[in-house]
From TrEMBL:
Highest rank taxon of the organism: Bacteria
Chain ranges of the D-isomer specific 2-hydroxyacid dehydrogenase catalytic domain: 7-315
Name used for this protein in its record: NAD(P)-dependent oxidoreductase
Similarity comment: family membership: Belongs to the D-isomer specific 2-hydroxyacid dehydrogenase family.
Annotated keywords: NAD, Oxidoreductase
Entries under InterPro entries matching the protein: D-2-hydroxyacid_DH, D-isomer_2_OHA_DH_cat_dom, D-isomer_DH_NAD-bd, NAD(P)-bd_dom_sf
Domain D-isomer specific 2-hydroxyacid dehydrogenase NAD-binding: 108-284
NAD listed as a keyword: yes
């Protein structure tokens, strides 16, 4: 490459990746700027790098007069206006699968935390309270986990749950006999979503946010779940109707929930007032191992895209 491209990094990425990019390009790191500053940064950028914290809207893409690439250093593209990028001829790619193991492990950690009341027990002990009788919860072995979505994350969740002795059901967007055979080989039984919700002792959501999955779990779906069941969400805010979930948790029509994604991040969600909820601040992919892997792929894909080629995980 004869010309050094200008890359603006808008969300935290692995430091080694930044160093590698800086060897061939001009790299500026401006973490989660305000919208006006974001427009100004886009105006002089050849590439923008985001995770989930910054939205690349149509006006950002329009402001990027020399913008060629938007890179999502993780899975999903719900924070990028793909139609605007497509119309502007801006290449968009993400890095699906690299953080699947990290997200899956968090999902199982959240499930254990909410079923065994780990967070509540920790808070009580810090307050000098020992209330063992009211902290009893179910074991996971011999119970049923329903996994909504069987992409890289959902598949790994199913694998981990199988290792714990759980029976695993799955709901998938595009079923086929071939896919059913693969699921059976993994020890997973495919069922339709209503049956999954009605049968599972715990339900884990692992789907992207699309027009088809927005509001996928609402009042009617929560009503299918049993009073002793739990919901774990490591997908995207918007997949669950949060108002309906709040009602279900307050009225104890389900036993509890563990949420890594929230409609209003960087704030205190209403769920924080409830004892039967475990909350984490969208840290599914935040492990040193996952971010190092994402960083290595990011460097390779950006170099390919900026040299006139195409990223292997190009979305548009």
């Amino acid at each position: 490459m004869t010309n050094r491209a200008r890359i603006v990094v808008l969300d935290p990425v692995d430091p080694d990746a930044l160093d590698a990019l800086a060897q061939a390009h001009e790299v500026e790191v401006r973490i989660r700027p305000g919208h006006d500053e974001l427009l100004a940064l886009a105006a002089g950028a050849d590439a923008l790098v985001v995770r989930s914290g910054v939205r690349i809207t149509a006006d950002v893409i329009t402001a990027g007069q020399r913008l060629r690439v938007v890179a999502r250093a993780g899975s999903g593209t719900d924070n990028i206006d793909l139609e605007a990028a497509r119309e502007a001829g801006v290449q968009v790619f993400n890095i699906p699968g690299a953080s699947a193991g990290a997200v899956a492990e968090l999902a199982l950690g959240l499930l254990l935390a909410v079923t065994r009341n780990i967070a509540r027990a920790d808070r009580q002990i810090r307050d000098g309270i020992w209330d063992k009788p009211n902290l009893a919860g179910p074991e996971l072995r011999d119970h049923v986990l329903g996994v909504v979505g069987q992409g890289p994350i959902g598949s790994r969740i199913a694998e981990l749950a199988n290792a714990l002795g759980m029976r695993v059901l799955a709901s998938v967007a595009r079923p086929s006999p071939e896919r059913d055979a693969v699921l059976r080989e993994r020890g997973v039984e495919r069922v339709e979503l209503p049956e999954l919700l009605a049968t599972a002792d715990a339900v884990c959501l692992s789907v992207p946010l699309t027009e088809h999955t927005r509001g996928l779990i609402g009042e009617a779906e929560l009503a299918l779940m049993g009073t002793g069941s739990y919901l774990v969400d490591v997908s995207r805010a918007g997949v669950v109707d949060e108002a309906a979930l709040l009602r279900a948790l307050r009225e104890k029509t389900i036993a509890g929930a563990a949420l890594d994604v929230h409609s209003q991040e960087n704030g205190t969600p209403e769920f924080a007032a409830l004892d039967n909820v475990v909350l984490t601040p969208h840290i599914g992919a935040t492990t040193t191992d996952a971010q190092a892997k994402v960083g290595r792929i990011l460097v390779s894909e950006l170099n390919a895209a900026l040299s006139g080629g195409s990223a292997t995980s190009r979305v548009c």
